[in-house]
Amino acid sequence: MKELKGKKYHIITFGCQMNEHDSETIAGLLQTEGCSEAEDRSDADIVIINTCSVRENADKRFFGTLGQLKKQKAIKPGFTACVCGCMMQQEHIVSAIRRQYPWVDVIFGTHNIDEFPDMLLQLYQSRAAALEDAGKTAGNEDLIPLSDRDYTRAKHEIRSARESRVERIYEDRKEIVEGLPARRLYRHKAFVNIMYGCNNFCTYCIVPYTRGREKSRHPEDILREVRQLVSDGVKEVTLLGQNVNSYRGVSPEDDRTWDFADLIYALNEIEDLERIRFMTSHPKDLSDKLIQAFRDCGKLCHYIHLPVQCGSTEILGRMNRRYTREHYLALVKKLREAVPDITISTDIIVGFPGETEEDFCQTLDLVKEVEYDSAFTFLYSKRHGTPAAEYEDQIPEEVKHQRFDRLVDALNGISLRKNQAYIGRTEKVLVDSISRKGTGTLSGRTDGFKLVDFSGSEDLIGSTVDVEITEGKTFSLRGRRK
Length: 482
Ligand code: SAH
Ligand code: SF4
Ligand code: F3S
Known about the structure:
Shape: globular
Bound molecules: S-adenosyl-L-homocysteine, iron/sulfur cluster, FE3-S4 cluster
CATH class of the domain at 8-168: Alpha Beta
CATH topology of the domain at 8-168: Rossmann fold
Helix content: 25-40%
Strand content: 15-25%
C-alpha cells in the first residue's frame, strides 16, 4: 500500500506475552507494507497502544499515555493514533474513548489484527477526503499566519479524525487467520500461539470476554511455523495459550485430534530447535501424559508456570478454578518426582472477595510447602462484567495490601534461598541481550527460566553458553562464563 510506505510506527505494549506477540504481528504487518520502526515515540507517524485489561494499573497507564498522544497529534501533521488489545473488547472502554478521546484514529480489538493495514488505508483515504473539504471551507491556508495556521491545521486534523475514525471490534471469528508475519523482539527466540481464547471463566477474570472462546490451531500449522522459525535461526520457542493443557488441534490431513503432549512430542523432533517452553498451564487440565513428556522430550525445558491463585479450596471454588488445594499439591509432587530439577512459578491473587485470614494463611502455607522459584502476585481488583465484581464480601484495600506484603515477604525469602542454592552449579544459559546493568554484562535464561547476568561480549547473544553461578539474588543469578 503506497499510503503506508515509509511511515514510521511505534508500538506501546501493556499486557502479557500474548499481547506482546500481537504487537510483534502488528509490527510484522506494518513492515510488510514498507513501514519502519521508530525507536522513539516522538519520531513516529503512527503510534499504536496495545492494551491489557488485567495488569495492575494498565488502564491508568493507558489513559495517561493516550492523553500524551493528543499533544503529539496536535503538533504533527498526519499523525495517527491507534488503540487495540484487550481493553478494546470492553464496550464501556470503547465508549469512553469515543466520548473523551474523539481524536483517536483507529480502534481495533483482539480478533481484527490482520485487518490493521487495511484499516489504516481506509483512514488515510477518508482523512484525505475530509482534509480536502476542510481546506476548501478554511480558504487559502497561505494567508493564515504561521502560528494560527498550526492551530487551524490541528483543529482540522482533530475534526477529520473524528469524522474518519476506523473501528473494528468485538466480533469473535470462528476461523484462525494463519500466515501473519511477525517482527520478533529477539532473533533467537520466538513466541508461537498454539491456541486463542479461553473457556474457563474464572470468576475474577476478564480474559474470556476480551479474547473470546477457545480455538486451537491445526498441529500442522504450528509445526510449519516452528520449522520456519528454526530455519530463520530461532533456538527457543514459547508456546502460548491461556490454558495450553486444553489444546485440542485437529489435523486436517487425517482428522486426528492432537492434545498438548502430542504437540510437544512432535516439536521435540525438530532438528536444531533447542528449547521448548509453554505458558500458561491450568492445573485442572495438567495430564500425566504431559508430565511424561517432560521426561521423554529433551528439548522441553524443566520449568512450569502453574498458577495456583489461592491456597484455600473454598476460595478456589468461588474462583471457579475447578481444582482443590490437595489436587494442586499432588500435581506438584508428581511433577517433582518425575522431574526432580523442575523449577515452578505461579500466579497468586490476594484479597479475592470473601477471603478470610484463615484462607489467606492457607495460601501462605501452600507457598511455603511448594517453595516456588518465583511468583506473580496480584491484588484482587474488580473487572467490569465478571461475576466476582458483583460479590458483596469485597475485602478492604488495607487488608489486601497487608496480606499482599506478607505474601511477598514469604515468596521473596524462598526465591532468595532457592537461588542461593545454585551457587557453584554450572548452567546452560541462552544469551538474550546486553543486561540493563551496563556494558559488558549479558543476560540470559537457564533451562529453568532463571535470569542470569554475567560478563561477556555482545557476539554471544543468541548462543548457549555454560555459566558457573557465583551469586544468588531474589530475582536473578549472577555468574561467570566457564
Ligand atoms: N490464563 C492464565 C492467566 C491469565 S491472566 C491462567 O489461567 O493461569 C494472568 C493472571 O492475572 C492470572 O493468573 C491472575 O492471577 C491475574 N488476574 C486475572 N484477573 C485478575 C483480577 N481481576 N484481579 C487480580 N488479578 C487478576
Ligand atoms: Fe482467566 Fe481463568 Fe481463563 Fe486464565 S483460565 S484466562 S485466569 S478465565
Ligand atoms: Fe492482559 Fe489481555 Fe493478556 S487482558 S494479561 S493482555 S490476554
